Amino acid sequence: KRLRADIAQNLINTSHIIHSISFGEPVPGAVSPLDGTVKIVKHGAYMFHYHIKLVPTEFTDRYGVRVETNQYSFTDVARNVHVRNGEMNGLPGIFIVYDIYPFLMKSTEKVKPWSYIFTSSCALIGGVFSVASLVEMFASRAIGQLFGCKPGISL
Predict the structure, then answer these.
(1) I need a surface site. Which of 6, 32, 102, 151 has the fewest CB within 10 A?
(2) Mind listing the pLDDT tens digit for each residue in 55-76?
(3) Is residue 13 classed as helix, strand or coil in its secondary structure?
(4) Alpha-carbon distance 56 to 66, whole Å?
């Protein structure tokens, strides 16, 4: 049977809050994009459609502990199924459609050794000295051109 306009406009409210949604064990640092989603309907009858794409994921931390879980992304569509001629052009509600991808994503946490920090610091210090010598060279040449002095001769 078809829903009547008075029922659709006054009795159906599809406002909702998604406090938390996950698909597997929690992983520190992983973000759940739908957590905290709030959809409020002020008037009309709405259809909310969430299309969720699940990717099976295996996390391995620096100690070798493996966690099998799922990450996801989503798209959402909200549509007012307004009444035309006493009939609705859709069904108000909250619909969730899942796609599970057939491949596994592996993520491994690695710790950089102290030698990485040492070599990065040396590269940074060397870069600072290189840039400083280039600035000094260009400044010396500009001053020499401006005052007519030869390089290496002080004013």
Answers:
(1) 102
(2) 999 999 889 899 999 999 999 9
(3) coil
(4) 13
DSSP state of 4: P
Higher pLDDT: 119 or 30? It is 119
Q: Are 59 and 107 in contact (CB under 8 A)?
A: yes
Which SS3 state, helix, strand or coil, does residue 126 take? helix
pTM: 0.63
Helix/strand/coil for 67? strand
Q: What is the pLDDT of residues 90-139, one digit of tens each?
A: 888 899 999 999 999 999 988 888 888 889 999 999 999 999 999 998 98
Partners of 69 in beta bridges? 24, 57
38: β partners: 17
22 C-beta neighbours (distance < 10 Å), count: 15
- Residue 46, number of CB atoms within 10 A of its CB: 23
- 41: exposed, middle or buried (C-beta count within 10 Å: 0-12, 13-18, 19+)? middle
Per-position DSSP letters for 74-124, written without gaps between them? EEEEEEE--EETTEESS--EEEEEEEE-SS-EEEE--PPPHHHHHHHHHHH
